[in-house]
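User: quick one, sequence for these tokens?
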């Protein structure tokens, strides 16, 4: 197994290169930017539908109002994703533009949304009250149009890059205000992007008789079907866990390609549920509650196993520290603290547990009558609660939860106990070594009394050691510390991770440390990809280990803005989240 891990480590740069692909980054970050749409619309959908489950009848005007809010948020998801994807792709492209040439991300965002409408939406006329009306078919404005959204975004940004790089713009005299001049400079690339997408629309409709969005769905239907088979679900989950195991954020690589499928399936499940049928799609957005039950690797039960069955002090401590975060799908304390990542003992259970979970879920949906997931809940919802809600409060879902908890425990326990034995042996060896060193030092001290000067020195060293062992807030402040304090006073720190969960842990530790040391340091947590609009407001940006692979791209932006960029590795990061005073000290040491 060590040979397998060494092989994975050898190829880690390749996997990190995949995760840094600008197209995948744009899709992932663009989708993240629209997550408020998904979550907010789901709240109104739950208000409109769930009371009926327990026999409560809401006033019809309230139901209609909630449905309207859902349709005008989730129903235009595709248009919004086109804009956010283009905006993030523009940011990546600007890092590669020649000096002095910049793409206008506001303009590319709007152009991509217009282009997406051309590719995905059908316009026709109908009669209403004796008058002819021009009508948009809204079917592909939402999740059904996500592929068209991505294509429109990429075409738009490339057209802008082509035009701006070659100065194919309308130039106005320098006396014209910059905002007005910029609008004219964007006319040619904007028009070029819209015209190209318009031509694609005409060609596809005339040759195939369907809009571009329908063509993609037709061509990719074998992929849709294959992804919902047992091998397809297992492959998706195994790839997600595998990438995380080698230290690359797996969902960032795997999920962008299947998000359109997952969202479309979940929307179809909802329609079937509201019609009184059985939602049968298993590959849905909240299937991650099952495959990533407690986080990637299906680690929900692992902290409890560490506390109850392990003898190693290290694993018991990790279990106690991680049980609450893992319950809310923030499992980085476990991944880096145990560690799980690149730990040869953990490879098999880390990959296998999620694969078993999704297989059991598909069996329950296909054969036992459990509903496929129909509602969307926030990613940090405790998995058992989220599964119960998204299956429309079925009791069979609770049975399913109990079964996968038991299965995950069975999968993990043998490997954890083997790893625990190794750690216990190592801890025993260290304890023996420390005992021998202590006995030897005592014997030497007894046979060779220290001279008065040496005793005084030892006394001073003991005093210093005791001072070092005190909390930072209790120690007298040296001149060097005072100087360092001035350096960090008024500092603004932004911590970034993939979903703003892990980053919140360090941001909170920094706040607590600042309070302990009496320093004026402000810290915030955020998700990588949503930081571009606010990053210039901070003095320091810290990348959590899960997004460390984006360091080079981030460095280009922070250097341009004069911001300090820090990227602690896994265990160091987790240690800092547990040591507020140490987090402040670490900031001081890295601000040189």
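Assistant:
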């Amino acid at each position: 197994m060590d040979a397998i891990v060494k092989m994975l480590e050898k190829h880690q740069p390749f996997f990190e290169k995949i995760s840094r692909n600008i197209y995948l980054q744009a899709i992932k970050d663009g989708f993240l930017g629209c997550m408020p749409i998904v979550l907010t619309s789901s709240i109104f959908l739950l208000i409109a539908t769930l009371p009926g489950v327990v026999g409560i009848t809401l006033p019809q005007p309230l139901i209609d109002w909630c449905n309207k809010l859902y349709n005008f948020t989730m129903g235009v998801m595709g248009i919004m994703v086109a804009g956010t994807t283009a905006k993030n792709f523009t940011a990546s492209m600007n890092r590669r533009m020649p000096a002095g040439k910049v793409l206008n991300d506001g303009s590319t965002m709007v152009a991509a949304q217009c282009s997406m409408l051309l590719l995905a939406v059908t316009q026709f006329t109908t009669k209403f009250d004796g008058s002819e009306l021009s009508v948009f078919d809204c079917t592909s404005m939402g999740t059904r149009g996500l592929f068209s959204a991505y294509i429109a975004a990429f075409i738009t940004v490339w057209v802008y890059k082509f035009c701006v790089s070659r100065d194919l713009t309308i130039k106005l005299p320098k006396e014209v205000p910059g905002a007005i001049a910029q609008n004219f400079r964007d006319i040619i690339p904007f028009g070029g992007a819209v015209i190209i997408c318009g031509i694609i629309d005409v060609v596809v409709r005339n040759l195939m008789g369907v809009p571009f969005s329908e063509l993609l769905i037709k061509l990719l239907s074998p992929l849709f079907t294959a992804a919902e088979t047992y091998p397809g679900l297992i492959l998706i989950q195994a790839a997600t866990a595998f990438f995380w195991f080698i230290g690359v954020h797996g969902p960032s690589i795997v999920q962008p390609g299947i998000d359109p499928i997952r969202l479309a399936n979940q929307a179809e499940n909802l329609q079937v549920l509201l019609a009184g049928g059985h939602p049968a799609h298993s590959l849905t957005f909240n299937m991650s509650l099952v495959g990533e039950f407690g986080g990637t690797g299906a680690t929900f039960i692992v902290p409890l196993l560490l506390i109850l069955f392990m003898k190693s002090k290290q694993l018991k401590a990790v279990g106690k520290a991680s049980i609450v975060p893992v319950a809310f799908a923030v499992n980085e304390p476990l991944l880096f603290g145990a560690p799980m990542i690149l730990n040869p003992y953990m490879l098999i259970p880390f990959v296998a547990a999620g694969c078993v979970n999704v297989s059991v879920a598909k069996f329950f949906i296909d054969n036992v009558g459990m509903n496929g997931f129909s509602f969307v809940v926030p990613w940090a919802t405790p998995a058992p609660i989220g599964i119960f809600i998204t299956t429309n409060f079925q009791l069979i879902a609770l049975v399913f939860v109990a079964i996968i908890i038991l299965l995950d425990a069975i999968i993990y326990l043998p490997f954890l106990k083997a790893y625990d034995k190794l750690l216990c042996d190592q801890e025993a060896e260290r304890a023996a070594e420390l005992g021998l060193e202590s006995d030897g030092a005592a014997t030497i001290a007894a046979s060779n009394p220290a001279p008065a000067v040496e005793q005084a020195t030892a006394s001073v060293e003991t005093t210093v050691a005791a001072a070092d062992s005190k909390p930072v807030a209790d120690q007298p402040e040296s001149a060097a510390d005072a100087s360092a304090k001035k350096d960090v006073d008024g500092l603004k720190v932004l911590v970034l991770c993939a979903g703003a969960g892990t980053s919140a842990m360090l941001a909170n530790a920094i706040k607590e440390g600042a309070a302990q040391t009496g320093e004026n340091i402000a810290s915030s947590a955020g998700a990588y990809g949503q930081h571009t609009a606010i990053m210039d407001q901070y003095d320091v940006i810290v990348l959590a280990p899960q997004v460390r692979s984006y360091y080079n791209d981030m460095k280009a932006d922070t250097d341009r803005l004069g911001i300090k960029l820090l990227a602690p590795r896994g265990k160091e990061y987790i240690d800092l989240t547990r040591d507020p005073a140490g987090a402040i000290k670490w900031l001081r040491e890295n601000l040189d």
